[in-house]
């Protein structure tokens, strides 16, 4: 049975696994779009600042919280203060919820990669393909396969599963992306206004602060946060598996740099590709989310023609698969680690039980996206889950994580512990200063402004209340859970009940054997 003592086999393994979690769909389908929309270079500048002031600071804080406890996220927060376990519990609930839709999208990407090899229709007639694909049972089959592959890797454990998979998939992901970019850069284009250079100009050529605006600043902060997998258990969990002498500052900065690099590079494949294959400006401007990946990009490959289009399309979607798979692994690991440590289950049992539940809920998400479209509170299940976690809960967890390090554990103890772990790093005083002031303040500003914006009639209006309500329910569940975990009377009652049922089983077995 695996215990918390397992660690990554090497520092590189840890960095690749954490970068694998960070590099995901967010880098591919949101970042390039935000750059195009919010003034190109101006957005990139604010994004970089946000990665440094917000992302990297929270990342070190989360890795440290896990590193010092060497345990799952609930115990990690519990070690700082037993009344902070609710934060850890939220940190288990959030990845659990995100996994359900992330696996669905990973399944679509897998389906597309295969379709490029076996189905000539996708290249010949991409119009409407996505709609019919997600409405067909094939989407469900690929969702199940994708989830199954994830569970298999997580069952393999930290070194033999997650680390090994990341060490293969991360370099492969870079390579695939580079090949696609090189191919796109060589496209001849379709006349004036439709060349690779026009794409580059649209993506990076502008430096327009007027287009950026306050909205763009908020979007940059929110994006840095989601993209770096912060505000949930992932970095705490992966941090708990680090060996002695891991330099947390350097590791976090490397992960941030790799994540930002892939986000920037993705745009170099997407925009020049769309321009050079003749996409309309309207399509290009609105290219985000599933529409970008599965519709707009499919048209790009289709315009490359059979043969080349099939190969480049296959490579692009394999890149998406690797990005999504390494992220989903990290989400499932958080939930698995908690259960296997808390209930003393084997890794396989913990992963399969929760994987099964994720699969069941994911099935509803999958069906709701196409086959039998339905909505809750006016949102698709996917959007609803995404908003509750991404917009409401993740910033709260990250905010509380900063305060936990700065004000509960306190700087003096943090420095002492870092030195004992061999994890001290240059600039840790600056990190601590940011953790205790600028970063949590920024986080709260983003959170409140986002909330205010979303309640506006031109956004979601009053129906956004259902999103806030959903998040509030999850928070109450976590609070009550924490209360019960720490209530001695409840725990004694539970213990007695367990002993009584064990005694009853023993008695029964004795009687059986006497008969
Ligand atoms: N960072 C991932 C992305 O950019 O797509 C998304 C994500 C993965 C968020 C894992 C959170 C997480 F724990």
The proportion of residues forming helix, as a percent range, comes to: over 70%
Query: Cα-atom Rg, whole angstroms?
Result: 24 Å
Total number of beta strands = 0
Shape: globular
Question: Sheet with the most strands?
Answer: none
Coarse structural class = mainly alpha
Q: What oligomeric state do these chains adopt?
A: single chain
Kindly report how far apart the N and C termini lie. 36 Å
Low-pLDDT ranges: none
Number of helices: 24
Q: What is the averaged pLDDT score?
A: 90
Portion of residues in beta strands equals: under 5%
Write down the secondary-structure element order. Answer: HHHHHHHHHHHHHHHHHHHHHHHH
What ligands can be seen in this structure? 4-fluoro-L-phenylalanine
Q: In summary, what is this structure?
A:
The protein contains 24 helices and no strands. By secondary structure, the protein is an all-alpha fold.
Keywords:
binds 4-fluoro-L-phenylalanine; mainly alpha
Kindly describe this structure.
The protein has 515 residues and is mainly alpha-helical. The protein is 80% helix and 0% strand. Bound molecules: 4-fluoro-L-phenylalanine. Residues 21-22, 24-27, 95, 98, 226-227, 229, 232, 234, 327, 330-331 line the site of 4-fluoro-L-phenylalanine.
